[in-house]
Design a protein that fits this description.
The radius of gyration is 17 Å and the shape is globular. The strands form two sheets. The chain has a six-stranded parallel sheet. A three-stranded parallel sheet has the order 1-2-4, with helices on one face. It is α/β, with parallel strands linked by helices and 249 residues long. Helix 5 (139-148) links the parallel strand 6 and strand 7 (152-156). It has a single domain (16-248), classed as TIM Barrel (Alpha-Beta Barrel). It contains nine helices and nine strands. Helices cover 37% and strands 13% of the residues.
Length: 249
């Protein structure tokens, strides 16, 4: 399948992510966080990504209490607006919404309170992240508490946490705790730096990656993703992984 998509050249004429089909990490809902800000941007980005082979978007706005204090009450109405805008354009794209939850004390309180959490997929996945500065001291407790509620945690872009780069056993610990790992496509391009790329490639080499996500925020991400789609080294990195993106369709 991958050879037919990418051929023998370094890149293809037409970017093609149809082998993924679904993107489960993006900031495409407008005006909610540091991602896209207008509906026109959202329609443009979704149209471009559809041409690359994506058929479904699970949008994941940040939920970060002191910066992006989103809730289902802010996210789900925006999802409805995007669906209406797509319908007006005659688009058949599937769009759903979850969230990217920061592992902090507020998230722990949210879990303990029994509040509605925005999950995705029939396996009840939830996307979680930590600060790039230091690991959250309560991350093991939160992972345990989520699983006690039959929610499956998916760790966003673990390759970007530099404090794990010299302690690879930390990644193994995440999986031991029951987490799935999601790597950013652009990490494999070197966009976030050489060490991040190296960590992402090693996670793939050790068959530890379950999802690939765009983590789409802005124009530069879109341009680089377009360039990445047909790169032979990208294909070589991801081709052996048992990715779960298509199970979300």
């Amino acid at each position: 399948m991958f050879k037919s998509l990418f051929g023998k050249s370094q890149s293809t004429a037409t970017p093609d992510f149809s082998f993924l089909g679904a993107d489960m990490h993006s900031h495409l809902l407008p005006g909610l966080d540091d991602g896209l800000q207008t509906m026109d941007q959202t329609m443009y980005f979704m149209g471009r990504l559809e041409k690359m082979g994506y058929r479904k978007f699970i949008c994941t706005p940040h939920i970060l209490s002191d910066m992006h204090p989103n809730t289902p009450d802010t996210i789900l109405p925006k999802l409805d607006e995007v669906r209406e805008a797509l319908a007006e354009r005659g688009s058949n794209l599937q769009v759903e919404a979850a969230a990217e939850y920061m592992i902090d004390l507020e998230f722990e309180k949210l879990i303990d309170s029994g509040a509605k959490l925005l999950t995705f997929g029939d396996k009840n996945y939830i996307l979680i992240e930590m600060s790039y500065v230091a690991p959250s001291p309560n991350f093991e407790k939160i992972i345990f508490n989520l699983q006690m509620k039959d929610i499956k945690p998916v760790f966003a872009h673990p390759e970007r946490y530099s404090y794990f780069h010299s302690q690879f056993d930390k990644y193994e610990r995440l999986i031991e705790l029951g987490c799935l790992l999601q790597v950013n496509i652009l990490s494999l391009s070197g966009f976030y730096g050489k060490e991040v790329k190296k960590a992402g490639e090693l996670l793939f080499k050790k068959n530890m990656v379950s999802f690939l996500g765009t983590d789409m925020h802005h124009d530069r991400h879109l341009a680089l993703l377009t360039d990445m789609a047909g790169k032979r080294d990208f294909l070589n990195t991801v081709s052996s992984a048992e990715l779960l993106n298509k199970t979300l369709l």
